[in-house]
Q: What sequence folds into this?
């Protein structure tokens, strides 16, 4: 299991404790989904400018967003896992500027917003979405349970 975190931004200082909490939350989520040993995921921490470029390129939306997920697996339901299976899940890109803005807007900590977005992005890599009401409720419930379990 490998979690790579690349900090490409210099707008907000990211403490080591925050990086450790980020890794812990990803590990916990993968463990909860029974993928702890097999999974590899990359997290890129960036600024609004870079995430806006990605949002325009891949979604046709020319504004910054908080998180983007780039899954490597199209259909998670058709995968057979064994103990030897290694899964390259994909990349999660998070705008640290958006994390800072939204944490203030929603009245909670920077770390809580960052972890929420990381878990949200990871669930997308694992095949969850919020395209319809039923799927959204399922995904939101998972997010809430995970954040509560890691005391966020």
A:
């Amino acid at each position: 299991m490998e979690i790579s975190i690349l900090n490409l931004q210099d707008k907000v200082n990211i403490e080591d404790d925050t990086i450790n909490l980020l890794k812990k939350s990803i590990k916990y989520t993968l463990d909860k989904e029974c993928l702890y040993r097999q999974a590899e995921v990359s997290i890129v921490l960036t600024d609004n400018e870079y995430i806006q470029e990605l949002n325009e390129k891949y979604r046709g939306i020319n504004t910054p967003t908080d998180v983007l997920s780039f899954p490597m697996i199209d259909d998670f339901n058709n995968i057979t896992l064994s103990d030897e299976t290694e899964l390259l899940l994909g990349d999660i890109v998070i705008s640290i500027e958006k994390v800072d803005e939204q944490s203030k807007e929603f009245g909670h900590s920077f770390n809580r917003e960052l972890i929420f977005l990381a878990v949200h992005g990871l669930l997308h890599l694992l095949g969850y979405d919020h395209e319809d009401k039923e799927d959204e409720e399922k995904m939101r419930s998972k997010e809430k349970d995970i954040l509560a379990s890691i005391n966020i």
Q: What stands out?
A: The chain has one domain: 2-149. Residues 102 and 113 are 7 Å apart (CA to CA). The chain is about 50% helix and 20% strand. The chain has a mean pLDDT of 91.
